[in-house]
Every structure is written in structure tokens, then in C-alpha cells.
Write a structure and sequence with these properties.
The structure holds 2 protein chains of 2 kinds. Chain A has helices spanning 8-30, 37-57, 75-82, 85-114, 120-134, 137-148, 153-162, 177-202, 206-214, 219-230, 232-247, 251-256, 268-277, 281-313. Chain A is mainly alpha-helical. In chain A, helix 2 (37-57) crosses helix 14. The longest helix of chain A has 33 residues, at 281-313. Chain B has 15 helices and no strands. Chain B is mainly alpha-helical. In chain B, helix 6 packs antiparallel against helix 12 (210-226). Chain B starts with 11 loop residues before the first helix and ends with a helix. The chains are: A mainly alpha, B mainly alpha. At the A-B interface, helix 1, helix 2, helix 5, helix 6 and helix 7 of A face helix 2, helix 3, helix 6, helix 7 and helix 8 of B.
């Protein structure tokens, strides 16, 4: 009696397995992991390890004033929560990020729509609006600080129109300064958002726009009903990068207000830097962890939503 | 995506049909609004930057829009280069930026090739981890401590490692997405001819990556050349880069309220990127627009 009678199904399964094994071997041979390893090592040591350490050192009393480092549980979080800094800085960072994302995308989209046509003048304007993107955010911050100073350049321009001297402390309000600073950062990055919206507009089929025009759609309708929905991938990229990027902001705020007045523009990274400078390393690490967690909590649903929105439209 | 690709290629004439219908008065008003927009949004800051940089200390203090009674622009440039120690800071920026960008590009594109072509579940997990840095903020305090432990804090090497660690994600994100759109048939035929993976990557894959690599390069240069936050933690006190130097001197006695010097510094430090941009402006714009949205 022979047990060599294998059913056709079994043989097929075996062949498939063999094929899979072959394919895997080929993959290994053609796309060897040693190409991936150097990047993985750098990422591991200089990105993942510090991130994990961040989770550990936030729960210690690490500081410049002590010889030893001991675990102290949630003491750092408790202290920062009790004195109100944690919630305050979180709120400020969030307001800053949302306003910045709004300004950057608002300015960027308007510029893109306005400069869409490929005329010489528009091309020149695109280049000009990209200059702030190239400049250091710190430098941009100093320039705008000078413009917005009490009785500074902006006040002097306004005075010409109003007819009498103007003195507004644009960066002196504990409520509005954060919005003004976010507008400055939005101004700086608007050129990049513009470019990305422009590239989105370029992929729109001209025939569709022409057809809509022939059907009697107004410019306004064409924009909101056709162009804007088709810009979905550009919106995803711009909104995600501007919102999440500005949560990690530092330069513009530092250069314009340095956290003032009265701590009203102290975003998380400003606290991290200031506290680190005071030698309070564990508190600094704790806030760095708070930032990390906040970005993660916001990033995942935000990106999921934007992707979902893209899939629904396109 | 678009049906147009099945038809004849749209000509330039074709593409502007939609726009060509605009009446004359709209074209004129477009020009007028554009000029006003440029003057208000860009003219004011840049004009103030240049005139203030050209004034002496007393005049600059008022931050007025009037022209300097006597131009001191080059005198001020001289002062910041000399007293602000701009030259070492410039070389510091170069020493940190160039290797960071190159290493991130090479390591990132190599990794991207594998991540794009190997389609197992494990690989997609590795890919997600690799691009997580695109969104997640780096743990800046502990990375500083880590560098101290390995003896790299305050050095260009340590700074380069950190920048590569931060921006590899950006490169991998852009390049992997791009490689996935390239059919693997070219690589297969080279393989049949007996080429090794190294040859295939450097001779076939890498040259195809041009546009994406260009846009990744620009973004990385923008971020790294202008960075002050990470440099403050890692280099502060030991080595200077241009933005770091600006930060330090703007907060120090020499520049406090010396707007003419701060602005002269800003003009000088912005020049390198502006010059590169002026020459490669077309490539840069098409590189970014090509890379970000597919």
C-alpha cells in the first residue's frame, strides 16, 4: 500500500508553500536587509532610545543639584499639575498650534488660488512669497518684533492713515499675543503651504473646470464645489504638518515674546528649554513627555480623519 | 487618476483654456491687488529690515521706516562679522548641515528601497516605526543626556547624529512613497543580467529618485540650517551655528536693542539660502510640489 496518494488540493497547497518560501528567499536575496540596517540603527539610538528614556526620566528627581537620580513616581506630574503650569502650557500650545495651522493654510490657500495662473507676474510673486520660508524662524521673529513694537513700524504706518500717533502694544496682551505670534509663524510658512496647494491645483483636470464654467458655474462655486474638494491630499499634508509641527514650535515665540507677557505665550518647548536651563532636568523631561503624548493623541485621529476624508472625496 | 492621460496629451494651449476666458478688467484688477498684497505682506518687513540694517545705533533705535540719513550698511556688516564671530558660526552651520543632509539622504533612500519592495506585514510595521518621527517630537532632553553618556554632546558629530535621527523619517516617507510608484521591471532585468543589489541600488534605483530626493534635500536644508531649538540643547556653548549665534548675540550685551546690528546679522545669515534659491528656484519649486502631494 502506498501513502504517496496525495490529493490534488494538498499538492497545490504544498506547491504554494514552496512558492512562498521561494519568493521569500528571493526577496531576501534581491532586497537584502543590510540596506535597511544603518538607518534602523541611527533611528533606534538617536530617536527611539531617547523617546523611551523620556518615559523613564519623567518619573525621577533628576536635576543638576543632586548627585543621584531616584524614582519619584508621579511627583513631577503632580507638582506641574498643582501649580497650574501643565494645564496652562498645554492650552497655550494647543491654541498656538490651531491658530498657526489656520493662518498658514488660510494665507497659503489664498495665495495659491490667487497665483494659480502661470503668468510671469504670478511666478515672480510665488518666488517672493517663498523667501520667508527660507529665512530662519528666529530671524523672522526678530523682524516682526521690531515691526510690532510699541510705536514701531506698524504703528507708524497706521498713524499715517489715522492722522494721529498710534501706540498699540501688539505683543503686550496676555490674551492676544499668542494669536499674533501664531500669525507671524503662519506668515513665515504660508509660502510652503502655497506651493503645496498650487501643486494640488495643477493636478485638477482643466476639462472639468471648463465644463463647469460652460454650465454657468460662478468662480465661487467652481472653487468650493470642485477645486477645494479635489485639494484633499494637499489639505491633509498641510494641515497635519502645520498643526503637529507648530506644537513642536520654539523659535518664533522665543524671538517675539520669549513666553511673555506674564507667561501667556509659554508654549511647551519654551518651558522645556527654560527649565532645562535652570537645571531642573526631570521637570523639563516631564513636559517633553507631555508634549509627546499630546502630539500622539492628536495626530492619530487627525490623520485618520484627513485620510478618511480624502478617500471619501477622491 | 485623470482620464486625460488616455487622450492626447493636453497642450499648453489646452491647459490655459479655462483661464483664457477671463475678461480684461479682471486681469487688470489681479495685477493691482497682487502689487498691493506684495507691498503689504512682504514689502513692509523687508523694507524695514534693509533700512534698519543701514542705520547707526541711534537712528535704528526708533525703528522708523524713514531712510537712514547716512547708509552704514557695510559698516554694520563688518561689525557683526567681526564682533559677532559670524565666520566660525557660518562654518559651524556648514559642518553640521552638509553631513546631516547627505547621511540622512543616503541611509534613508537605502532603507526606503527595501521598505518599498518587501511587502510583508513585518515590513509595514517597520515602515510605520520609521516614519513615526515625521509626527512625533524628539525627546530633546534625554537625547542630550544620551549624547553626554557617549561623549558626543557639544560636538558636530553628536549634532549630526541627532539631525539624522530626527529627519530620516522625512526622507523615508518621501522616498518610499516614490519608489512604490516605480515599476520593479527595470531592477528585474538588471538582476537577470547578474547585477548585485548594491549595483542595482546605486546604478538604477538611486538615479530614478532625482525629483523626490531634491524635495527632501530642500526640506532638510531648510529645517537643519535654520534650526535653533535642538542646537541650543546639543551644541550650546561648545560650538556655534548661525541661528544659534544670532540667538546668543541677540540676547547678549552687544546686540541688546542694537537693531541695526541684529538686522545686519539677519540679512547676512539669510543670504546663503537666498543665493542657492535664486539659482535653483525653478528646480526647488518643482521639487517640492512634486514630492509632497502625489
Amino acid at each position: 500500500m502506498s501513502n504517496a496518494t496525495i490529493s490534488p488540493q494538498q499538492r497545490l497547497a504544498e506547491q504554494r508553500q514552496e512558492g512562498d518560501a521561494n519568493r521569500k528567499a528571493l526577496m531576501k536575496q534581491n532586497y537584502p536587509l543590510r540596506f535597511l540596517v544603518p538607518a534602523a540603527i541611527v533611528l533606534f539610538i538617536f530617536f527611539f532610545v531617547p523617546t523611551v528614556l523620556n518615559f523613564i526620566y519623567a518619573f525621577t528627581d533628576w536635576s543638576a543639584f543632586k548627585q543621584t537620580i531616584n524614582f519619584n513616581g508621579f511627583d513631577n506630574f503632580n507638582a506641574l499639575f498643582k501649580n497650574g503650569i501643565l494645564v496652562k502650557d498645554l492650552g497655550i500650545t494647543l491654541v498656538f498650534a490651531v491658530c498657526e495651522a489656520f493662518f498658514q493654510n488660510f494665507f497659503g490657500l489664498i495665495l495659491a488660488v490667487f497665483l494659480e495662473e502661470d503668468t510671469t507676474l504670478n511666478r515672480v510673486a510665488r518666488v517672493l512669497f517663498f523667501i520667508p520660508v527660507l529665512m530662519s524662524a528666529l530671524a523672522v521673529g526678530y523682524v516682526w518684533q521690531a515691526i510690532l513694537k510699541n510705536g514701531g513700524a506698524l504703528d507708524q504706518v497706521l498713524a499715517v492713515f489715522v492722522g494721529h500717533a498710534v501706540k498699540v502694544s501688539w505683543l503686550g496682551s496676555t490674551t492676544w499675543s499668542i494669536v499674533v505670534v501664531s500669525a507671524i509663524q503662519g506668515w513665515k510658512w504660508a509660502g510652503l503651504a502655497m506651493l503645496i496647494y498650487l501643486s494640488g491645483l495643477k493636478t485638477i483636470d482643466q476639462d472639468v473646470l471648463e465644463a463647469a464654467q460652460i454650465d454657468g458655474a460662478s468662480g465661487w462655486q467652481i472653487f468650493w464645489k470642485i477645486k477645494f474638494p479635489l485639494l484633499a491630499p494637499a489639505v491633509t499634508f498641510n494641515v497635519a504638518t502645520s498643526l503637529l509641527g507648530s506644537m513642536n514650535g520654539f523659535d518664533t515665540v522665543q524671538a517675539t515674546t520669549a513666553g511673555g507677557p506674564g507667561g501667556s505665550t509659554e508654549i511647551l518647548n519654551l518651558f522645556v528649554w527654560r527649565t532645562f536651563g535652570q537645571g531642573l532636568y526631570s521637570q523639563s523631561t516631564t513636559m517633553s513627555l507631555v508634549l509627546f503624548i499630546m502630539v500622539m493623541i492628536i495626530a492619530i485621529p487627525l490623520i485618520w480623519y484627513l485620510r478618511h476624508r480624502e478617500a471619501k472625496i477622491l | 487618476m485623470s482620464m486625460a492621460s488616455f487622450d492626447a496629451k493636453p497642450t499648453a494651449d489646452d491647459a490655459s483654456r479655462y483661464h483664457a476666458r477671463k475678461p480684461m478688467w479682471r486681469k487688470v484688477s489681479h495685477v493691482v491687488i497682487l502689487v498691493l498684497l506684495v507691498i503689504v505682506a512682504l514689502g513692509l518687513p523687508f523694507y524695514l529690515l534693509v533700512v534698519t540694517a543701514g542705520k547707526d545705533q541711534k537712528e535704528a533705535l526708533q525703528l522708523s521706516l524713514s531712510l537712514p540719513t547716512k547708509w552704514h550698511l557695510f559698516e554694520n556688516f563688518g561689525t557683526v562679522i567681526r564682533d559677532g564671530k559670524m565666520i566660525p558660526a557660518f562654518f559651524g552651520s556648514i559642518i553640521v548641515t552638509v553631513p546631516s543632509v547627505l547621511i540622512a539622504l543616503v541611509l534613508g533612500s537605502m532603507a526606503s528601497w527595501i521598505l518599498a519592495r518587501r511587502t510583508t506585514r513585518a515590513m509595514s510595521v517597520v515602515y510605520s516605526l520609521c516614519i513615526s518621527g515625521l509626527i512625533l517630537p524628539p525627546a530633546v532632553v534625554t537625547v542630550m543626556m544620551l549624547l553626554k553618556m557617549i561623549g558626543l554632546s557639544g560636538t558636530a558629530v553628536g549634532m549630526i547624529c541627532v539631525y539624522v535621527g530626527i529627519y530620516l523619517s522625512t526622507v523615508i516617507f518621501f522616498v518610499t512613497g516614490f519608489i512604490r510608484t516605480i515599476p520593479p521591471s527595470l531592477e528585474e532585468s538588471a538582476r537577470i543580467d547578474g547585477a548585485s543589489p548594491i549595483r542595482i541600488f546605486f546604478k538604477i534605483v538611486l538615479p530614478l529618485l532625482g525629483p523626490t530626493m531634491a524635495s527632501a534635500t530642500i526640506l532638510l536644508i531648510l529645517y537643519i540650517w535654520n534650526d535653533v531649538f535642538y542646537a541650543l540643547f546639543i551644541l550650546s556653548g561648545k560650538m556655534d551655528t548661525l541661528p544659534l549665534n544670532l540667538y546668543n548675540v541677540a540676547n547678549a550685551g552687544l546686540y541688546l536693542n542694537n537693531w541695526h546690528l541684529i538686522f545686519a546679522y539677519i540679512i547676512l545669515m539669510s543670504l546663503p539660502l537666498l543665493i542657492i534659491f535664486a539659482f535653483a528656484q525653478k528646480k526647488i519649486i518643482s521639487g517640492i510640489t512634486g514630492g509632497a502631494v502625489k
